[in-house]
From TrEMBL:
<dbReference type="InterPro" id="IPR020471">
    <property type="entry name" value="AKR"/>
</dbReference>
<dbReference type="Pfam" id="PF00248">
    <property type="entry name" value="Aldo_ket_red"/>
</dbReference>
<dbReference type="InterPro" id="IPR018170">
    <property type="entry name" value="Aldo/ket_reductase_CS"/>
</dbReference>
<dbReference type="InterPro" id="IPR044500">
    <property type="entry name" value="AKR5G"/>
</dbReference>
<dbReference type="InterPro" id="IPR036812">
    <property type="entry name" value="NAD(P)_OxRdtase_dom_sf"/>
</dbReference>
<comment type="similarity">
    <text>Belongs to the aldo/keto reductase family.</text>
</comment>
<keyword id="KW-0560">Oxidoreductase</keyword>
<protein>
    <submittedName>
        <fullName>Diketogulonate reductase-like aldo/keto reductase</fullName>
    </submittedName>
</protein>
<dbReference type="InterPro" id="IPR023210">
    <property type="entry name" value="NADP_OxRdtase_dom"/>
</dbReference>
<feature type="domain" description="NADP-dependent oxidoreductase">
    <location>
        <begin position="27"/>
        <end position="261"/>
    </location>
</feature>
<keyword id="KW-0521">NADP</keyword>
Amino acid sequence: MLKSLQSTKRLHNGIEIPYVGLGVFKMTDPQETVQAVQTAIESGYRSVDTAAIYKNEESVGEGVRNTKVNREDLFITSKVWNSDQGYDSTLKAFDESLKKLDMSYLDLYLIHWPVEGKYKETWKALERLHNEGVVKSIGVSNFHQHHLEELLKDSNEKPVINQVELHPRLSQEPLRAFCKENDIAVEAWSPIAQGKILDEPTVNHIAGKHEKSPAQIILRWHLQNDVVIIPKSVHKDRIIENADLFNFELSMEEMNQISGLNLDERFGPDPDNFDF
């Protein structure tokens, strides 16, 4: 049930992930990142999502240590970058991430993008890390349905989660249906489309009715679609606002109006043709 910022979704391996976490993509200023992580945790967030390529794992780790919340009560995610994919290089990259975060384990480790010819070997490395207990859950990011089908053919474990670009302009309904069928949770990066849809009249009309901001309406739409979200902000008031989602509910009609904004429009790269 979506009752508070500590509300969690149970993954297929029995582990619970908070529905709302802090994303730290493009947080490049170390002190700003430390402060954002600290503010989020002190405001009740229990999940932080980073990645090797964000180059801020040290700051995330420091932000975590600056709070009074026990590491065991937090959910920390990182991701292996494309140039590190492959079996041995993934194991090495994971050690590097753990060292930078200054932690003894990760709650979730993801393959950042489905690098052709490499992601299956990368997945085998993630399975090993999971078996060794240094990662509690393993998953993927930016995988289309065909990537997931390909991965499931040869894997011993299936991903607990697929983190993808997802917002009202790119509602990903077929992919979400496939993931639901296969008990793979869906997590949205860029849940408010980098702010590009905040002036959308439909969203603003619904926001006015609920006396909420357009961002809060979109984030609530995700939650009611059973999607995990990691909105990013370095501003204290925005970090708090992004979490204030549990004292109102969108009607079925409002949910459908927001879903009706879908144009299958990406603001980020397409997982079928990214070149990095």
